[in-house]
Design brief:
alpha+beta; Glutaredoxin; Antioxidant, Horf6, Chain A, domain 2; 10 strands; elongated
Length: 226
């Protein structure tokens, strides 16, 4: 399976994230090191580039919020580890900001190709701006792809993690434009009896428009995930 992924870069939502071991700015790191945590694995086209520099700063400034969601950050590009180190040191010297997460040095592009991070129509070597949100069980839950000339919106990445965690905890779904602490869409009834019960509930609680679309408030432990 890993060989096929390496050749095709065909990572899909819902599948087990392909394993890897790599040298980073924090030393040797593998996907297994993040077991039990959520992970945002993201690629950037190159070191010492303007958009990427703003993203590294933005991710670092938001790192505390990711940590609160049991989520770690892991960057990647095909540049060398010395290049990564020089870049993050330059960011620190110019801004006083220390990049607080590791960056993979994927020199041979093995991980980038395994995850489909290289778009041959744009470049045969540089990675486009991919984001893979991997849950605490190692499953790929979200894939975002940005062009090289558009920076990522970090609050949306945080919101997606919050939505995924809330939907999992509440066994439901999140509506369009959902934000933390808003109601969750209830799972659709599977039997006619459940359908009738749901319609009665809607009449009593005024919490939906029909049996297939009703809401419930986040409660208890689920609120703590957000």
């Amino acid at each position: 399976m890993d060989y096929e992924l390496m050749m095709n870069g065909n990572v899909k939502i819902g599948q087990k994230a392909p394993n890897f071991q790599a040298m980073t700015t924090f030393g040797e790191i593998g996907l297994e090191d993040y077991k039990g945590k959520w992970l945002v694995l993201f690629s950037h086209p190159g070191d010492f580039t303007p958009v990427c520099t703003t993203e590294m700063i933005a991710f670092t400034r938001a790192y505390t919020y990711f940590k609160q969601l049991n989520t770690e950050l892991l960057g990647l590009s095909v540049d060398s580890n010395p290049s990564h180190l020089a870049w993050v040191f330059d960011i620190y010297c110019k801004t006083g900001i220390k990049v607080s997460f590791p960056i993979i040095a994927d020199r041979n592009g093995e991980i980038a190709r395994k995850y489909g991070m290289i778009s041959n129509d744009i470049s045969n070597t540089e990675t486009v701006r991919n984001v893979f949100i991997i849950d605490d069980k190692g499953i790929v839950r979200t894939i975002l792809i940005y062009p090289m000339n558009v920076g990522r919106f970090i609050p949306e990445i945080i919101r997606i993690i919050q939505a995924l965690q809330m939907a999992d905890c509440m066994n439901g779904a999140t509506a369009a434009n959902w934000m933390p602490n808003q109601p969750i869409i209830q799972a659709i009834p599977k039997t006619f009896n459940q359908l009738e019960e749901r319609n009665e509930q809607i009449k009593e609680e005024n919490n939906g428009i029909s049996w297939y679309l009703s809401f419930k408030e986040p409660k208890g432990e689920c609120k703590k995930t957000n």
